[in-house]
Amino acid sequence: MLSSRSLLALLLPPLLLLGAAPGPAGALSAEERREMVELHNLYRAQAAAANMLRMRWDEELAAFAKAYARQCVWGHNKERGRRGENLFAITDEGMDVPLAVQEWHVEQQHYNFSAAACEPGQVCGHYTQVVWARTDRIGCGSHFCEKLQGVEETNIHLLVCNYEPPGNVKGHRPYLEGTPCSQCPSGYRCENSLCEPMSDPEEVTETPSFLATEASDSRKEGAEDPAGSETYAGLTSGSGHIWGPLLALLLLPPLVLAGIF
Ligand SMILES: *[C@@H]1O[C@H](CO)[C@@H](O)[C@H](O)[C@H]1NC(C)=O
């Protein structure tokens, strides 16, 4: 029999982190943007991946994410097209970028790499997007939502991150296991266990061939569709039924919402 305290511990293990400095209520600061990219790259470098690209900030993706964050909806952007997307929301303390990335990455514990599958009933899609080897651009926007559609609690800081090329391609693992950088695309060098283009990516005008391959693979096999359905067992979008236990705990500040989709 679980006491309410141990139940809380079960449902909210790493969620209640205090003392984070509140960010500005509505936009990511330069510092938060830097943290976002660096934390992604930290987790990416830690994966024993042979082909992990370095991720960099993309202003167009950031503007796209910000525009959606302003709509204050707790659910994936159905208009996101061929962009990956991770969401995070938090009350009270304000936006906490390190916590957001940590919350996404912690889903690793439920991901079975050899089976390329998430444990039934669990969510792994945020994690696999964070460490998706071929995703090399991220852009995020945050917005303070007095009312967040789909959530009863009020006054929530919403974070939306979009990714290109998108991860979570059905039937694919997030990366190739192996010696770091041992399978970087041609034209890439190794820098701190991550593959980095030899030329400034901003100056690259042609799509690298591996990206073209990825795109056609995705079309053939079906990238995760914009509704976020059924790429991984337990991944659902907008249905809200995974919410039950969390909604019951909304009285405990700070509420952190992640891992719903
Ligand atoms: C992961 O999946 C493989 C292959 O399906 C299976 O043999 C193994 O037991 C799974 N590992 C865990 C920890 O569930």
From TrEMBL:
Residues 31-171 form the SCP domain. It is found in: Secreted. CDD domains: CAP_PI16_HrTT-1. It holds the Pfam family CAP. This is Peptidase inhibitor 16. It comes from Pipistrellus kuhlii (Kuhl's pipistrelle). Interacts with PSP94/MSMB. Residues 1-27 form the signal peptide. Residues 199-231 are annotated as: Disordered. Coiled coil: none annotated.
